[in-house]
Amino acid sequence: MEKVMAESLAEHERILQEIESTDTACVGPTLRSVYDDQPNAHQRFMEKLDACIRNHDREIEKMCNFHHQGFVDAITELLKVRADAGKLKVQVTDTNRRLQDAGKEVIAQTEEIIRCRIQQRNITTVVEKLQLCLPVLEMYSKLKEQMNVKRYYSALKTMEQLENTYLPRVSQYRFCQIMIENLPKLREEIKEISMSDLKDFLESIRKHSDKIGETAMKQVIILQRKKESYSLITEILKVYWFYSSICFPPLFQSLLCGNEDIPISLLELKGTLKDFSPVYRCLHIYSVLGDGETFENYYRKQRRKQARLVLQPQSSMHETVEGYRRYFNQIVGFFVVEDHILHVTQGLVTRAYTDELWNMALSKIIAVLRTHSSYCTDPDLVLELKNLIVVFADTLQGYGFPVNRLFDLLFEIRDQYNETLLKKWAGLFRDIFEADNYSPIPVANEEEYKIVISKFPFQDPELDKQSFPKKLPMSQSVPQIYIQVKEFIYASLKFSESLHRSSTEIDDMLRKSTNLLLTRTLSSCLQNLIKKPHIGLTELVQIIINTTHLEQACKYLEDFITNVTNISQETVHTARLYGLSTFKDARHAAEGEIYTKLNQKIDEFIQLADYDWTMSEPAGRASGYLMDLINFLRSTFQVFTHLPGKVAQTACMSACQHLSTSLMQMLLDSELKQISMGAVQQFNLDVIQCELFASSEPVPGFHGDTLQLAFIDLRQLLDLFMVWDWSTYLADYGQPTSKYLRVNPSTALTLLEKMKETSKKNNIFAQFRKNDRDKQKLIETVVKQLRSLVNGMSQHT
């Protein structure tokens, strides 16, 4: 127990020492250990604490008692010092007053000196700062002046100097800050002003493109004329040099020999081109501002827009050549400006850009020309358009733009030009044919004869031997057609000029276009002429004669083409003219029309026939309509003397065959129900006249009775009925040697039935009244046999 108490006292002693030596903020854990100890430890600890306090109080009291006398002595000394301190204070105050009074004047003078020194220093500082600021102000003033006189590029250079050199030296001043803030605004103002000038320039250059292009194209025309004149003089001098011994200078000799090209200078358009300074200025300004790419893009974009406007034609452009000229002038002016910009600026436009722009424009131009040229119906307008396109192409080619596609387009337009020429010449041919009298050309004397052969290559030794007056076989339309064909060749040649093609190609083009004229236009006009109702047999005969002479003249047309193209006969490898086939076809058509019209005329006469099919006795002479028909045929075939023999013979044979067929159809007409023997005899008289006409050889060249064979069917049929030789017909039917070989059983049956009906009504066989039954029985028997023959033929078929 005692041991425990001793340990507790020792622990309390340690805690007290720890409390005394430890900060009061950390006493908590120490005091907690008092409560965590044994029971009643708190009471013992409090007792121990009170004992400790009492010990400390005794020590404090001892210490105070030890130092109390010293404290009292210190207080006494302090009270003595206070009196001395008061005296010292009075003395110091008095001394200070006197000193202050004495230093007032010095202070005033010192302050004046200080103020003067400060002013002097400020003045020096101001002078130094002004020396720094004056150049800035001078440069800014210079900038304002440059802005006022519109020297914007110099103004930008001044701004650059201000920003890089002058303003950094005085950047601390407020006016410098104002300047620095204003400089970007001035730059934007310069950009806006220069851009506004550029816009004005672009608008102005768009309006003046027409004039620029017109001047450029005129200068090309002048150069071409000079070159043509030079070429002509060169050819003359070549001939003179060849036949003379004159020694020409070497350079001139080389020119004559074709070794040197004629020096042609570039187009001088300085008097026409506008002032390009807005472009240069704007380019420099944007380049200095580091925005050159923006300017290039803007310029190219605007020029592309203008190009689209320039390439857009007026809707009525195709009506006049002036419309095309304005269109080409604007385009040439546009690309002349672009070429100028390309050569005087660095990078604003490039060759690749101009080539791309030209390719785009060329496609549009070709499409526009292809469309508008298709509306042109006047060959003169198409020819003028071609000349404009050639000058247009040559002008742009002089500036380095490829124009091959334009010349390819000219070949398309050439086809269209030929079409308009063909339409025009079709009208000329029609007028010539309408005005022709279709009779041989009369010439009263040698002078008139020479006039005709000067227009048309006609040669006839037999006709030359005849005396005047005489007639040429062709009509007036032949030399006129020949002249118009030559005029067509000239007109076609005009388009082929200046196409930069060889003489051989031009020769080939002329031949092709002339072939079209002959095979399509002239052929069509001839065919239409032949089909016209007012063209009679006489006119058709003359047309055949005319086409024969035109056909013979084709070789002279070929020589004419060769001469105008300067192509020697040995080098020509092109197609020949197709006039031979054209005129042959026209002749064949005319011949066919002759056959048709002859048949139509025969039909007209046949329609006048007025037979009395029930007459008992014939009139004793041929019918009037038939005699008129034969007289007409005789007079018509006399006109055929100028036709080729085969044509006249074919026409005559065709007429006789058609007459025979028409007469046969008249007999067998289904509407004709009865026919008497008297009518058959009268019909026989008419056929006899036809046979007499055929035997009179109305057209020479027939052998024997060839022409009479056209009526053999009628003759055998009528003989059969006139002789009443039915026994022979039926016995020899089918035999090659039959007397009635050309009589068809169905034909004989039809005619016999018509006569049978007549006999019943009119008692045509009254003279055989005694044998009436036998005759009637014979007819019935023949009819039955004929029917059996007809039925046998149909079954065999």
UniProtKB/TrEMBL annotation:
InterPro entries reported in the protein's UniProt record: EXOC6/Sec15 (IPR007225), EXOC6/Sec15_C (IPR046361), EXOC6/Sec15_C_dom1 (IPR042045), EXOC6_Sec15_N (IPR048359), EXOC6PINT-1/Sec15/Tip20_C_dom2 (IPR042044)
Q: Which GO terms describe its cellular component?
A: exocyst; plasma membrane
Q: Where does the source fall among the domains of life?
A: Eukaryota
Q: What UniProt keywords are attached to this protein's entry?
A: Exocytosis, Transport
Q: Name one GO biological process term.
A: intracellular protein transport
Q: Does the keyword Transport apply?
A: yes
The Exocyst complex component EXOC6/Sec15 N-terminal domain is annotated at: 48-217
Which ranges carry the Exocyst complex subunit EXOC6/Sec15 C-terminal domain? 406-754
Q: What does this protein do?
A: Component of the exocyst complex involved in the docking of exocytic vesicles with fusion sites on the plasma membrane.
Similarity section: Belongs to the SEC15 family.
Record's protein name? Exocyst complex component
Give me the gene this protein comes from.
Answer: EXOC6
